[in-house]
Design goal:
Radius of gyration: 20 Å
Distance between the termini: 26 Å
Largest sheet: 5 strands, parallel
Order of helices and strands: HHEHHEHHEHHEHEEHHHEH
CATH architecture of the largest domain: 3-Layer(aba) Sandwich
Mean pLDDT: 92
Number of strands: 7
CATH class of the largest domain: Alpha Beta
Strand order of the largest sheet: 2-3-4-1-5
């Protein structure tokens, strides 16, 4: 079995037949809602794959979901204008880094949806793009922001630069509230919640699903999923460690079942650690930093 180490794109995982735990039922339950959502999870926990799966769904890529649970639930596949921002690619060590990242996304979208001379700031440009995308397609847009807090976590020890990034993000994310009438669905992911960033203080319709029963297992791997999707891998690992399936399962549980996002909720295994364990056929402490 091929494991998607370092691969976080749903399209690539499905097309190249990599190992995949089917999360599409819970993704469907989230995506069919209208509104603004936030999910906090540790690094390397599947947040980027979740965003990529949502993007594939909202692009109406029905063919990618063949054989998955969502194919039994969705009867009307629609394509929406999508604005996907991944803030995880930069180290944000200089003051221009965030501005350049945002401008790069905006320039690409303006090629498709146009611009106005009066739109000088990144927030005005983003606002105009959303409005014109709706006018051009007749569809309310989808906004997906992965690792919204990376510029802040990367500069936590640089007070002045960190505050500058807060101000930039405050204006940029504020567009989500001002252009609410044009937005069908918005999803933000990150490692933590920053109370001073206005996306949380001003965007009062944002629904934090990080600690909810319905979405506690939207990322990561549960005990049930481990038995369904990883049985062969566990059997191979048990053979190497000269033990049986039940004992190997218990060893994996003690080693990697360390997350409970809801009180009395299901235990969640870190997917990165499990995938590396199965690929390397070796149990150890794999860093998720």
């Amino acid at each position: 079995m091929d494991y998607p180490v370092g691969i976080q794109t749903f399209d690539d995982i499905i097309k190249d037949d990599f190992f995949y735990v089917d999360k599409t039922e819970v993704v469907y339950q989230l995506a069919r809602r209208k509104g603004y959502y936030f999910l906090s999870r540790p690094r390397r926990f599947g947040k980027s794959l979740l965003i990529s799966t949502l993007e594939a769904y909202f692009r109406g890529k029905k063919e990618l979901f063949k054989g998955l649970k969502i194919a039994e639930l969705e009867t009307k596949w629609e394509s929406y204008p999508i604005f996907h921002i991944d803030l995880n690619s930069e180290n944000y060590s200089n003051e221009d880094a965030l501005q350049l990242v945002l401008e790069n996304y905006l320039a690409k979208w303006e090629e498709e949806y146009g611009t106005r001379p009066s739109e000088k700031t990144v927030s005005l440009r983003f606002s105009g793009i959303i409005e014109r995308a709706y006018e051009k397609t007749g569809k309310r847009v989808v906004v997906l922001i992965d690792e919204y807090d990376k510029p802040l976590t990367s500069t936590i020890d640089k007070e002045e630069l960190n505050e500058e990034y807060r101000e930039q993000l405050r204006a940029f994310y504020g567009v989500l509230k001002s252009q609410d009438r044009y937005i069908r669905f918005a999803m933000l992911t990150g490692v933590t919640k920053f109370s001073k960033v206005s996306v949380f203080s001003d965007l009062n319709q944002l629904d934090d699903i990080s600690l909810t029963d319905d979405f506690q297992a939207i990322c990561g791997i549960t005990d049930e999923e481990l038995d369904i999707y990883c049985r062969k891998s566990i059997e191979e690992l048990a053979k190497k460690y000269k033990t049986d399936y039940a004992d190997m399962r218990e060893q994996l549980r003690k080693k990697y079942d360390g997350y409970h996002f809801v009180e009395n909720g299901v235990g969640i295994y870190n997917p990165y650690s499990l995938i590396l364990t199965f690929q390397n056929k070796k149990m150890k402490d794999y860093s998720i930093l």
